[in-house]
Amino acid sequence: MNGSPWGGSEELWFATAKLALKQKHTVSVIYRFWGDQEHDNIKSLRALGAKIIYRDMDLCVSKKHKWYEKARLLLKFKLNIILPPRPDLITQLSYAALIPNQIDVVCFSQSATFDLALSEKYLDLITQINAPYFIISPGNKDFGYSLNTFQRKNAKTIISKAKTMFFVSKNNHKFAEHQLAASIDNYAITANSLNIDNLTICPYPTNLEDTVFVSVARLDITTKEIALQIKCFAEEVWRMRKWKYLIYGSGPDKDYLQDLISYYGLKDKVFLCGFAEDIRAVWNKGHILLQPSIAEGTPLSLQEAMFCGRPAVVTDIAGNTELIKEGINGFVAAGPIYNALSEALERAYLHRHLWEDMGRAGHKSAIKNINTRPEVDLLKALIN
Fold this sequence. Notes:
By secondary structure, the protein is of the alpha/beta class. It has helices spanning 8-22, 40-47, 95-98, 120-128, 149-161, 170-180, 226-233, 236-239, 254-263, 279-283, 300-307, 320-323, 338-350, 355-369, 374-383, and strands spanning 27-32, 51-55, 72-75, 106-109, 133-137, 140-141, 164-167, 187-189, 211-216, 243-248, 270-274, 288-291, 295-296, 312-315, 330-333. It starts with 7 loop residues before the first helix and ends with a helix.
């Protein structure tokens, strides 16, 4: 990951941009430079001929605006395009000077459903775009997130003018309408692009002394409740059991989670393993996925686990329960709260003799229901 956040939302626009380049379209990408190195995927787009435009780090006014700190993809097919990814922060520049006279198509990839509505300058920007535009909504936050009257008005205008708003789960679409208190009719359901080629089941690890729980997630407790998941394992009942909890990923709360592991005396049980380069290697030694989502679309880690033949414990958030059915291919916690997570974890453990069969059921469901190449349909929609 080279120090950069990269997940399902990035994979979708990245795969779409890559496909567009291979079809000889012209692609420009605006992206925030996150660390000391350029992300390998950005390098690959550049090598294919994409124009990469990094936003100025000095324009980032505050780390609290995490929802803005995501990639913005701008696709067009004849002319180059340069647009500010965070127009609310670019106060000294004229939008008219930044936007070419002719644009074929624009695709905004958001972090959360209503990012474009958070500032009136997004509306100003869209007003100046004399071209069709599409919006990708890769996820939403079901808890502690609301829009004020101004933002809801902005959202209704921006969404109504879009050709299509893409959601990655049916539940995301339904909840967006709830938050907006209005229908969103110009929508389509897509999926996050999978970063896995081999879709066969990984051999189930039967020779391990410990039960191995796995999370694959960005270490950000505003979107994944990894902290409470760790707390669940600090309960006395777990002190007497043979288990390990492997957490793969990076993010801003890594140090806090490491301190929490030490605080609960779990340094020999819970491990922060860093970024997983090979997801199948992860599941060759893991029995079940723990997905304590707070904000979600349809998580890549869950889809990957299903294709690898593993069950999951998920929260009843967004697309999680569109994939996981209680007692069939996993277990569902009512929400990202301590009691619900603890109860679901205990329920799963007491049925661990069924996990291998549940994993097979999940794999069968994944093969049947998950679109592994959503970028094909997305690019077709943009071109048409």
